[in-house]
Amino acid sequence: xxxxxxxxxxxxxxxxxxxxxxxxxxxxxxxxxxxxxxxxxxxxxxxxxxxxxxxxxxxxxxxxxxxxxxxxxxxxxxxxxxxxxxxxxxxxxxxxxxxxxxxxxxxxxxxxxxxxxxxxxxxxxxxxxxxxxxxxxxxxxxxxxxxxxxxxxxxxxxxxxxxxxxxxxxxxxxxxxxxxxxxxxxxxxxxxxxxxxxxxxxxxxxxxxxxxxxxxxxxxxxxxxxxxxxxxxxxxxxxxxxxxxxxxxxxxxxxxxxxxxxxxxxxxxxxxxxxxxxxxxxxxxxxxxxxxxxxxxxxxxxxxxxxxxxxxxxxxxxxxxxxxxx
Amino acid sequence: xxxxxxxxxxxxxxxxxxxxxxxxxxxxxxxxxxxxxxxxxxxxxxxxxxxxxxxxxxxxxxxxxxxxxxxxxxxxxxxxxxxxxxxxxxxxxxxxxxxxxxxxxxxxxxxxxxxxxxxxxxxxxxxxxxxxxxxxxxxxxxxxxxxxxxxxxxxxxxxxxxxxxxxxxxxxxxxxxxxxxxxxxxxxxxxxxxxxxxxxxxxxxxxxxxxxxxxxxxxxxxxxxxxxxxxxxxxxxxxxxxxxxxxxxxxxxxx
Lengths: 326, 255
Known about the structure:
The complex is a heterodimer of chains A (326) and B (255).
Chain A: H1 4-26, H2 34-42, H3 48-82, H4 94-107, H5 113-136, H6 142-166, H7 169-180, H8 190-213, H9 217-222, H10 227-249, H11 255-265, H12 271-293, H13 304-325
Helix pairs in contact in A: 1-12, 2-3, 3-8, 3-10, 3-11, 3-12, 4-5, 4-6, 4-7, 4-10, 5-6, 5-10, 8-10, 8-12, 11-12, 11-13, 12-13
Chain B: E1 4-13, E2 16-26, E3 31-35, H1 42-49, E4 57-62, E5 65-66, H2 72-78, E6 79-82, H3 94-98, H4 114-126, H5 142-155, E7 160-164, H6 172-187, E8 192-196, H7 200-206, E9 209-213, E10 219-223, H8 224-227, H9 230-237, E11 241-246, E12 249-254
Parallel strand pairs in B: 3-8, 3-9, 6-7, 7-8
Antiparallel strand pairs in B: 1-2, 1-4, 4-5, 9-10, 11-12
């Protein structure tokens, strides 16, 4: 049932998203006023501030929003697929595979295009590795899938450590930024927007089935859900969302784990609300975190993953506490 | 009208034959009980009827169609099941849970329609859960959870009710209420009922027909009046069982 509370939540999230994007456009080393933002977006001005907006802040803000949205969406899906509150977009080893790809590329001196492609290739390889192993068992049980993912993750972790310990100091700096998540080089294109929109649409179409599946596989079967097909679809779609997100921004932590939980605690348990809410809160949360990451210690920049943890952990604990008190 | 035809069904678990060449025809207005020892295959048999388990040999026909050829959703509109495990206690409200019963019938992708809400609310009322509508499921007692699982099943409005240990956690009053509600539906010929249970007396009071699973994959199938005897039960359970008559009921007890 659509309750007023849920509509209120969704409306607040829309406003929060808009506010976070505006905040991100306003913050930075060059002072740009609201009027300038409006003017620059409405007309094609070519002054310095307009260039900063169009070439740096707007693309970076949009990249943060898309990445955060994809991560939170993927986290919500993984939590249904694995029926485990600790599930996050990275639990099945996708970010580990991407990290090995990205770090190897850094080691070889690649950046930009090749770095992204190496990360994406690593993520894809990891997805099929986990799928292949889980499928080989012929048993798609939650526990097996989870264990397979965790073990593959651990394997990637070892490779990452080897790469870190054997690289030069210069490379290690870039590698650590990648590992913690960093949006300074991030750009998104039409394909990324389309993927996020497809995720929203697909998530909404499946939302009722997700509502049933999260209650358990047996109940879902008895209520007419084709559980095998649905789980396969969830596995691959969440994997692609994660792979894309880490390709854009490295493995930004916490967003995919805590955003869906926060929203569930706030009452958005119904996936018809949880899915759009995740995209909005995940997106705006990362936009906000990135604004802080590039301004707190300016002109230095922090990796955004550090900021998501610094804001996310206390915020989550506060919400957890307030819901327990009821 | 839904009829269920179990044809030469063989089920095996870990090389143990649970039932061999089982043939049962279940009509719309019939109530069946499914009795047998622990591990005799009661749950496995019920699960095989909703395709939760592969059938080793034989087939199950729903209104003449092999269930293997039916979509899960089509099956769920006709057959509903109460699982032995009941409902998991998650932080969702009672109403959010009971409305899931409407899942196989949903017309609209996103919006709930009034009729579904009404059916779900009526189902809650039957099991006296209407006052708990907004309560989180993880705050319910064992008996309340079981009533919620039953309300969900009722909201699913199936034509064939499969019940696996329905009396779990239920007090005597709700056991009788549940079976009265369901057997009323059976009598009105709008449903049939198959109930796996360990409560022989509840089974004999509310069911007219019986599948009694024996050791080694054998089964006795027939009218309760013919099959429910001291001799057959003693054989099935491997311990002596006797009966007494009390008013209109016959009561069984281990000797």
